[in-house]
Amino acid sequence: MKRLPIIFFLLLAFTLSSHADDRPNIVVVLCDDLGWGDIQNYGHPHIKTPRLMQMAAEGIQFSSFYSAAPVCSPSRVGLLTGRSPNRAGIYDWIPEASADKPVANSRQLVHLRKEEFTIAQMLKDAGYATCLSGKWHCNAMFNSDKQAQPHDNGFDHWFATQNNASPSHENPVNFVRNGTPVGKKLEGFSCTIVAEEAMNWLTSHQARSPEQPFFLYVAYHEPHEPVASPPEMVKRYEDGPASNHDEAQYFANVENLDAATGMLIDHIDKLGYKEDTLIIFTSDNGPETLNRYKSAKRSYGVSGPLRGMKLHTHEAGFRVAGIMRWPAQIKPGQKSDTSVSSLDFLPTFAGLADAEIPDDLTLDGTNFLPAINGGPLPREEPLLWVYFNSYNGSEHVPTVAMRDENMKVRATLQGMKQTNQLDKANLEAIQSATLGDFEIYDLSKDLAEENPLPTEGSPLPEKMKRLYGELLSDSHIWPAVKKAKNQ
Questions:
Q1: How much is the CA Rg of the chain, to the nearest whole Å?
Q2: Of 33, 185, 258, 403, which sits most exposed with the smallest number of CB within 10 A?
Q3: Are 254 and 31 spatial neighbours (Cβ–Cβ below 8 Å)?
Q4: CA distances (Å), origin 389, targets 35, 319, 329, 362, 385
Q5: Number of neighbours of residue 372 by Cβ within 10 angstroms
Q6: What string of DSSP letters covers 101-146?
């Protein structure tokens, strides 16, 4: 995919002053495993999300919003870098490891390396204050000097966990603040705790540097398992539409993250930042469901009319909620079917912040500003997803997917087995695999991907082959590490 020069972003950005105090603040709220159909905005019949409904009424709601991957770690890395996560070597979720407790193969080495260019580092260099609150999941050795940590990737302040809140969303004990474990001091539910940390940081930031713009990355653990929700919310669903206690817990979990988001938005507005703050609400991937994850009793996510779920390369794997509010620039009450991706965040924020992007950096996203008031979003290249460990119902083979305007293409990588890693041990097998079994869908007429179109005569398979080959040649390759003796 072609590198886009910085002047492209500056020209597409609105007429913004180059002075720091005139640049917008930027807030990204990211959920974990929230399905496209899990909130009231996208048609869930029972879950109430009044604050997200209000956010959409004050801004724009996208029906074709995409994450960078159908699973957590690569999705987060793609969001932060504006590049396919494969370029950074993040191919699947990252298990927690340590120097004395390695995991199989080379997965203990996996992390968002310090040399990767991130949104946080870019904005920090441009004069923004930066804060992460919530789930990190971008390294195996969390809070260790063996690998880069959030502060190495551009965050001034960070309050995070490696992966899930533990032992559950209620009273989590595994948060770390700027390198210091918090321990058993936290009470309440994770999304509220995460929002409150962000609010406290924002209050102190305003007192310290009232004219300095900020970037706030708020990453909830909800509604990923292990699910735990406020009893009063659970009871409302248990006494009403939920079929059982566990489903009521899930419904309440989504409502609780809605409440936390509303609390955060209210605080932003109270501090006087409302007009000049772009807030984006989205999810890292599609929903987990009982169809795959029966040991997790509270995974009641839904994907609405979309086919698939988390780990799939059908639409439900990575088509997610996308809501934006920015009163100074976004007209209220809009709905759009323009395709926007979390890969677009970095190039867009670069334009808004007058920030510099390295000349030799290959980006896979584009500036989404033309779409925020209902316009089209031209792309030089289609969106591409390559997931070597995909799971699509009865199909357990590596797959590649592409969205080119209204057309969706899927293909399998033939001649290789599923893997969660690209390293020197399996490089040859992956390089020799070929794309085949192409499926083409017109999403404007077939949102559920039920009626594949003829592939003969279509230029799309060849376009996918070219893009896949270019991405594979630029994907990071980890060293081969033998399986740990204790595995």
A1: 21
A2: 185
A3: no
A4: 20, 18, 40, 24, 12
A5: 23
A6: B--STTGGG-B--TTS--HHHHHHHTT-EEEEEEE--SBSSTT-TT
- Residues 288-298 have a mean pLDDT of 89
pTM, 2 dp: 0.95
- Cα 398 to chain centroid distance, Å, stands at 21
Residue with token string 């939920």 = 242
Residue with tokens 């870098």: 81
Please tell me the predicted confidence (pLDDT) of residue 483: 56
Domain boundaries, the chain: 6-16+23-371, 383-473
Work out the end-to-end distance of the chain between its first and last CA atoms, rounded to an integer number of angstroms. 39
Buried residues in 137-160 as b, exposed as e (16+ CB within 10 A): bbbbbbbbeebbbbebbbbbbbbb
Q: What architecture is domain 6-16+23-371?
A: 3-Layer(aba) Sandwich (3.40)
Alpha-carbon distance of 144 to 179, in angstroms, equals: 8
Packed helices 190-208 and 245-270: angle between N→C axes, nearest 10 degrees: 10
How many Cβ atoms sit within 10 Å of the Cβ of residue 376?
A: 11
